[in-house]
Design brief:
By secondary structure, the protein is mainly alpha-helical. It contains 2 helices and no strands.
Length: 107
């Protein structure tokens, strides 16, 4: 009788642990999907901001080229420099791409 009670308790424990495992796996999968959606949204926003930034940079360069010497506000400028933010942006893009690849590889 004692052995039967222990066996029943162990079976209940195993059943409970299996249920906990299923629930945990389900929550982990949901969190993973949510994380992927957030990543996709961030990447989309990043591309939009980068596109907007690049567009403004082109417009600025175009406006600088259209200035005529002798006009008010005209200053002699050297060749356009690459802004430090562009280098940071490129590193960030690379880092995000590598994270994305790693996530896909581990899935």
């Amino acid at each position: 009788m004692y052995f039967f009670c222990i066996l029943k308790t162990l079976e209940e424990t195993v059943t409970c642990l299996k249920k906990c495992k299923r629930d945990t796996e389900k929550k982990l999968k949901e969190a993973s999907i949510e994380s992927e959606q957030i990543t996709a949204n961030l990447e989309e926003a990043h591309h939009w901001f980068k596109s907007k930034f690049d567009s403004l940079q082109r417009e600025l360069a175009k406006n600088r080229q259209q200035r005529i010497p002798g006009e008010q506000g005209y200053e002699e400028e050297e060749s356009p420099m690459k802004l430090p933010s562009q280098a940071c942006l490129k590193r960030w893009e690379t880092k995000q791409h590598l994270k994305f690849i790693a996530r896909k590889y581990l899935s």
